[in-house]
Amino acid sequence: MSRLAISLFLFAATACTSSSTKSSIDTADTGTASPTSTGTPPAGSSGGCEWMGAYCYDFDGPSWDATSAASACDDFNASAAAAGAPAGTFVAAGCSSGAAAQCTGFAVDPTDPGTSFTLYYYGSPIPEVEVACTSEGGTYTEL
User: Fold this and answer.
1) For every one of its 143 residues, what pLDDT tens digit does the chain have, with 9 covering 90 and above?
2) Which residues have C-beta within 8 Å of that of residue 8, sequence separation ≥ 6?
3) What is the distance, to the nearest Å, from the Cα of residue 117 to the centroid of all Cα atoms in its chain?
């Protein structure tokens, strides 16, 4: 697991709380936004790793399949547990629609751009999330 992914996770775990306006992940989500949604996860998702309804890593690079995405979620969970944070939940359908912001431009394996992932944030975007994303070299976008 890259230090960047762990760093983003740890920041998101402390910056985002379960007070998000989104109450839970809809595991039946097809990965397409509803007409009232403000965000759309990538169509090529191989699964997502969701935490507390506040944010979700979407494994959207072409090198991911369901097995490797679930394994990456397990790795994120191990890092979270080691830091005393709650565990995430693997969502086979990918991250739910309705994200307020996203952070892109990262890969779990920096030598393989196919291992890219998108970090989606739910609820009201806070300035610290944008700073954390861009300071690590990512691209922050409000949706």
Assistant:
1) 444 454 555 445 444 433 333 323 333 333 333 323 344 444 568 999 998 889 999 999 999 999 999 999 999 889 888 888 888 999 999 999 999 999 999 888 889 989 999 999 998 878 888 998 999 889 999 99
2) 103, 106, 119, 132, 133, 136, 138
3) 7
Half-sphere exposure of 23 (CA within 13 A, CB side): 0
For the chain, which residues make up each domain, given as ranges? Answer: 3-10+44-142
What's the chain look like in SS3? CCHHHHHHHHHHHHHCCCCCCCCCCCCCCCCCCCCCCCCCCCCCCCCEEEECCCEEEECCCCCCCHHHHHHHHHHHHHHHHHCCCCCCEEECCCCCCCCCEEEEEEECCCCCHHHEEEEEECCCCCHHHHHHHHHCCCEEEEC
- Check if the beta carbon of residue 49 is closer than 8 Å to that of residue 73: yes
